[in-house]
Amino acid sequence: MVDESIIDTGPEWSAYEAEQRAQRARSGAPLTLTFYDNGPTTEIDWRNRDARGQELRNREQFYRLRKMQRRARVSSAAERNLAFALSEIDRMSSSLGLSRNIREKAAVLYRKTVDKGLIRGRSIEAVAAATLYAACRSGGIPRTLDEVASVARVSRKDIARAYRLMARELELKLAPVSSTDYIDRFCSELRLEHEIRRKALELLNTAREKKLLGAASPDGMAAASIYIASLLADRAPPQRELARVAGVSEVTIRNRYKELALKLGLDLGPRAA
DNA sequence: AAGACGAAAGTGGTTGA
DNA sequence: TCAACAACTTTCGTCTT
Q1: Is the CB of A176 under 7 A from strand C?
Q2: How many whole angstroms separate alpha carbon A200 and alpha carbon A190?
Q3: CB proximity A273–strand C (7 Å threshold)
Q4: Quick count: other Cβ atoms within 10 Å of Cβ A165?
Q5: Which residues of chain A (222-251) touch nucleic strand B at CB < 7 A?
Q6: Which positions 213-242 on chain A have a beta carbon less than 7 angstroms from any atom of strand C?
Q7: How many CB atoms lie within 10 A of CB A2?
Q8: Alpha-carbon span A111 to A186, nearest angstrom
Q9: CA–CA separation, A199 vs A163, rounded Å?
Q10: How far is the CA of A240 from the C1' of B13 (A)?
Q11: Nucleotides of chain B within 7 Å of a protein C-beta?
Q12: What are phi and psi of A177, to 5 degrees?
């Protein structure tokens, strides 16, 4: 269980307000990440003079120098930001136990997002989390927004916003999350045998064919079908456990499974205590 | 004791004026 | 931008095993 009292002490990245940007044009991002060696920096100032105040000869040359230096600084800031984002993706991925494959997907998405210029005005952390969320979905092993948010240093809301924007701008065409995608993960987390897993999938599929799957959330439906399947096998885990793993409330599981059993015409009989 | 149940009130997100 | 709305959660008293 994640300690909910953890307070984020990391840098606040979301403040790309006008004044801040003006400052940043000179100084780069927050102190700790920019002046990583805490050393002095050198600038070529606007007066075309040398160290003794003499007028300089070759103005064009100095103009070019200034320009190059400015560019070098910007691009290295971008590189540092990218490095930070990728390390965050890595950190969150391992907290969630995601595969290498998914991390790569997320990293690719992140680069695309940067290339489209979509980062400006959003926190790096939120975008990184959003790419991870998207990568999981496209990989067929979705995590809920809550799960991603639990390992991110920004709110669920910010992640959702970043995700929506990204999905629109990159024209990601992700199928709606399917309840069946959750079955394997929930079952293995609860150490339910394969038979139950199979039965739960079957229940969901027949429900889908009969168009019984309404607008109810897929994680709740997945939990409900697992519950029914395990009831049929006389191996029902406590609703509390199922609710914890699925990230929904017990009440939701109850409502869904009653509803689903009714629609499928299943008689759970005396087993449904 | 432990779990299942469901009513009632509360919450956050979406939608449409 | 606001209010209505649906889905879900929290809380809690009751019932069953």
Answers
A1: no
A2: 14
A3: yes
A4: 18
A5: 236, 238-240, 250-251
A6: 214-217, 220
A7: 8
A8: 32
A9: 34
A10: 25
A11: 2-8, 12-14
A12: -60, 130
A268 nearest nucleotide via C1' and CA:
B4
Q: CA–CA distance from A73 to each of A11, A32, A34, A40, A63 (Å)?
A: 20, 16, 10, 14, 16
Whether A230 contacts A261, CB under 8 Å: no
pLDDT tens digits in sequence order for chain A, 273 residues long = 444 344 444 344 443 333 344 344 444 444 333 334 444 455 555 555 556 555 555 556 666 666 666 666 556 777 888 889 999 999 999 999 999 999 999 999 999 998 887 777 678 899 999 999 999 998 888 999 989 999 999 999 989 989 988 888 877 777 778 888 899 999 998 889 899 999 999 998 888 877 666 667 889 999 999 999 999 888 888 999 999 999 999 999 999 999 888 887 776 655 444
CA neighbours within 13 Å on the CB side: how many for A5? 0
> Residues 6 or more apart from A41 whose CB is under 8 A from it?
A35
Backbone angles phi, psi at A41, to 5 degrees: -115, 160
CA(A222)–C1'(B6) in Å? Answer: 21
pTM for the model: 0.72
Residue A161 burial (10 A CB sphere; 0-12, 13-18, 19+): middle
- A193: tokens are 């045998």
